[in-house]
Each structure stands twice: as structure tokens, then as C-alpha cells.
Specification:
The protein has about 190 residues and is an all-beta fold. Helices cover about 0% and strands about 55% of the residues. The chain starts with a strand and ends with a strand.
Length: about 190
């Protein structure tokens, strides 16, 4: 399995059998990646550097850099959309989510979002986008269906699918994050410990 270690500026490879590090790969010299996702086939890692604005595709078998693209505008999250064979990347400073070709990293489409898009998730062919600046989650139909926006509380940051539910982590007014179930307008969050 692979672990992105931002402080070390590397992707570490560990053995599943004994959890020992067996290899490591370094991104381009000036990059400091802070987020990574892996292609469904496990061969490519997609590294985001929020500060420099780059996305890099790394061959996870060899460590070779296969493609690189400057997105600018603080890319904050990347998600592989298997049905669309595309990468969704949220740009928190310019407010779109880009759909990229997973091989070349060229932009295929732009999805307009609210203020400061962050975490992304897909559920039932809908893209959920946490919008920290608007305290909302946008739900975008990936097959041309309608889109909607749901208020979820202070600074929605991450979206996660588990089973048949979508969870949103939002930074509340207190020191602990709050978790909301998307689609439920209860007005109550779940305090995390």
C-alpha cells in the first residue's frame, strides 16, 4: 500500500504482509504534495500540491512521473470518477471543479461551484462537492440530471460515502468538527470525539 508523507515529500510503499516500508518515490523536486488518490487499477497515483498548484501522475510501480499539469488556484482534493474515466479536482481559490483526462491531465470540463470547494465524493452518479466558503454541499448530476445545494453548517470540508449514506465533515463553531448526513435537514450535527 502507498502512503503520501507530506513532510518527507515522498510516496512510501509498504508491504501488506508485514507493514514494513519496501520502497519510496519522490515527486518532482519543487513539489510538496499534500493529497493523493490512486487509480482504480492501482497503477497511477495522482498527487496534488496545493501551494504550487500542480497535479502529477506518478507510475506507482516505478515511481516515474508520467504527466504533470499546473492547475493554479490551490487544488485541494482529487477524486477518480470511474464511470466517467476522469479525475475531478476542486480548486479552492477559483471556485470550479475541473474534470481532467486521467492520462494526460488535460482539462475536459469545468463545473461551477460555490465558494471554496473542498472535498469530493460520488454517490448514485452524483458528484458531492463540499463548499467551505458557503457552508454548503453541491450535488451535481453526472449524467445531466439536475443539481442542488444543501446547507450543512460551518465550513464543509470533506464528503465521504459509506454504504448508502453520504457524510459531510464541517468545522463547527467549537474546536471539534461536526459531521452531517447529506440530504437530511435536521439542523443537528454529530460532534466527533
Amino acid at each position: 500500500f502507498y502512503v503520501l508523507t507530506s513532510a518527507d515529500k515522498m510516496v512510501k510503499v509498504f508491504s501488506v504482509a508485514n507493514y514494513k516500508q519496501v520502497d519510496f518515490f519522490q515527486p518532482p523536486l519543487n513539489d510538496a504534495p499534500n493529497f493523493m488518490t490512486i487509480s482504480p487499477d492501482g497503477r497511477s497515483g495522482y498527487l496534488l500540491d496545493e501551494t504550487s498548484g500542480f497535479i502529477t501522475r506518478m507510475n506507482l510501480l516505478s515511481g516515474e512521473i508520467m504527466a504533470r499539469s499546473r492547475l493554479n488556484y490551490r487544488p485541494s482534493h482529487v477524486l477518480y470518477l470511474e464511470q466517467q474515466d476522469a479525475l475531478a479536482v476542486s480548486l479552492s481559490l477559483s471556485q470550479p471543479v475541473l474534470l481532467l483526462d486521467p492520462l494526460t491531465l488535460e482539462t475536459r470540463a469545468r463545473i461551477s461551484t460555490g465558494n471554496s470547494p473542498q472535498g469530493l465524493a460520488v454517490f448514485l452518479n452524483q458528484l458531492y462537492i463540499a463548499e467551505a466558503g458557503d457552508n454548503t454541499v453541491s450535488v451535481i448530476g453526472l449524467s445531466g440530471a439536475e443539481s442542488s445545494r444543501q446547507n450543512v453548517g460551518m465550513r464543509a470540508r470533506r464528503v465521504q460515502v459509506a454504504g448508502d449514506q453520504v457524510f459531510v465533515a464541517a468545522r463547527g463553531e467549537g474546536p471539534r468538527p461536526r459531521i452531517f448526513l447529506a440530504g437530511e435537514d435536521t439542523g443537528e450535527g454529530i460532534d466527533s470525539e
